[in-house]
Structure formats: structure tokens, C-alpha cells
Amino acid sequence: MEVLTRTNGREMTLAISGELDHHGAHGAMQQIDHALDAALPLSLTMDLSGVSFMDSSGIAVVLRAHRRMAALGGSLIVTGVPAQARKVFDAAGVPRLVTMQ
Fold first, then answer.
1. What count of Cα atoms within 13 Å lies in the side-chain half-sphere of residue 9?
2. pLDDT at 90 over 90
3. How far apart are CA 99 and CA 97, in angstroms?
4. Strands of 2-8's sheet in order across
5. Alpha-carbon span 49 to 40, nearest angstrom
6. Left if phi > 0, otherwise alpha if psi is -120 to 50, otherwise beta: which for 70?
7. Using alpha carbons only, how large is the chain's radius of gyration in Å?
8. C-alpha 32: how far from its chain's center?
9. What proportion of the chain, given as a percentage, has pLDDT over 90?
10. Residues 56 and 93: beta-carbon distance below 8 Å
11. What would the pLDDT profile of 3-32 be if each residue is shown by its tens digit?
12. SS3 sequence, the chain?
């Protein structure tokens, strides 16, 4: 699991790659929390196009980022969702809570 961070002012993009499963989710959450604490962005884009597999742990990662951004008064958009991950999100109803493109 790898999380690459790009910032542009108060806009941040996190590009996540690898397997977002129970093994990688904890590390991903720590990296995301660290990035958010350092930059305090108003807009966060999570790019999941590099995710090769995702289970329900990925839902927890996205919802945690969503809560963190709401606490900061900001927004979250999830982009590049692979088909397999989209099925996991759709089954849990995540697109009703989080903007996905």
C-alpha cells in the first residue's frame, strides 16, 4: 500500500495504490491522517486508480477521510475507482455519503 501526496495551496490529492485490505488499511489511515494534519486542506481528492484490490477495510479508510474533512470544514471527492472497488462501495451505500467520480 502506497499513498502519494500532492498539495496545491489548500487542495490535496492522495493517490493510493496497491491492495486496500485489512493489512494495508491501517497504514493508509496513518499516512492520510499525517498528511491531513500537516496541510489542513479544504479540498481532498482521493485517487484510487492505482488500487488493485479493495475489501471493506477500504470503506473505513474513505469514511474516516470523509469525517476528517467534514471536521475541517472541507470536502472529499473520490476518483478513479476501479470496478471491483466500486462494487464494494455500492454494496455498502458509500456513494450516498461521499462524492465519487
1. 3
2. yes
3. 7
4. 2-8, 11-20, 43-54, 75-79, 99-100
5. 24
6. alpha
7. 12
8. 8
9. 98
10. no
11. 999 999 999 999 999 999 999 999 999 999
12. CEEEEEEECCEEEEEEEEEECHHHHHHHHHHHHHHHHHHCCCEEEEEEEEEEEECHHHHHHHHHHHHHHHHCCCEEEEECCCHHHHHHHHHHCHHHCCEEC
Residue range 25-52: mean pLDDT, rounded: 95
Give per-residue pLDDT as tens, 28-37: 999 999 999 9
In angstroms, the first-to-last Cα distance of the chain is 22
pLDDT at 1: 87
Residue 74 cell numbers, joined: 472541507
Record the pTM: 0.94
